[in-house]
Amino acid sequence: MTTFSERTIKSESIYKGKIIDVSIATIEREDGERAKRELVKHPGAVAIIAVTDENKLVLVEQYRKALEKPIIEIPAGKIEVGEEPIKTAYRELKEETGYSTTRLTEIASFYTSPGFADEIVYLYEASSLEEGEQQLDDGEYVHVVTKSLAECEELIKEQRIHDAKTMYAIQYLKLKEN
Amino acid sequence: MTTFSERTIKSESIYKGKIIDVSIATIEREDGERAKRELVKHPGAVAIIAVTDENKLVLVEQYRKALEKPIIEIPAGKIEVGEEPIKTAYRELKEETGYSTTRLTEIASFYTSPGFADEIVYLYEASSLEEGEQQLDDGEYVHVVTKSLAECEELIKEQRIHDAKTMYAIQYLKLKEN
């Protein structure tokens, strides 16, 4: 599959931000053809499947400016520079939801938008939960809710749950139930 | 949940590209606090779950510059301006894989990266397939493969299948099998 590689001829930095970097790469394929690629660099994220003793999934509702609306998602957070993803996961679960766990297991990872971005999400499952207080960062407004799988499916129909990682997590729990 | 909205105070356009637009919004929450949001606009995409008569999932392998490697995904494509998503889906399935279908059904939609992007993927399932010839755009290099669910799970372990929409689609098919 020699036509598969895309060698970078030139890379132009457009923007270096707090969360994303944007660049335009001029690439050359092995047949000599050139093209442009719009690329977003992202540090990656973690997300956590946490189910309470009452068999409810821990979720957070927050405003997503990119969508101009609030949606309900599993707890998640951006990986800090140099931080091991699993450490981010322990930290974000505790900070965003107040719940903590003694053991997280990685169950999957996936690129969210391979057409233009390198964002990867590492998905963990918490083995047991202890309730506690949220510890939100300054300016974080996150509302914690817990929902059964049937309630989650209703929220998907209403498009209040409407993102890939959360919908993947709900399918994962349904498959586990079977 | 009055703290949920984020009013735009200022929006600075950073880049307007062929696929993505990038801007920085200054937002104000209802408590008066201000913050910046890095935002990527994307026209949205479709993806298609197409299973052959031999019960194999139709997949495409292509180089993803954002990841600097090829990965194997379900067929997908960006929605053109003004195009109905389902039309994009009929077109992309045929062009990318050669397979065509008389009926697509929307089974889900999801935002891929709600933290910074508005990209939405509409996921369709093809009800029956007819084999034909690929009709790739100039400069598209897409290698079609068909795989059983067991083979797909191996490819996930090898991280050759490694994106959210494809892994969601595989879970969907597993749930359907049960």
UniProtKB/TrEMBL annotation, chains A, B:
GO terms for molecular function: hydrolase activity. Its cofactor is Mg(2+). InterPro entries: NUDIX_hydrolase-like_dom_sf, NUDIX_hydrolase_CS, NUDIX_hydrolase_dom. Residues 40-169 form the Nudix hydrolase domain. One of its GO terms (biological process) is nucleoside phosphate metabolic process. Pfam families: NUDIX. Keywords: Hydrolase. This is NUDIX hydrolase.
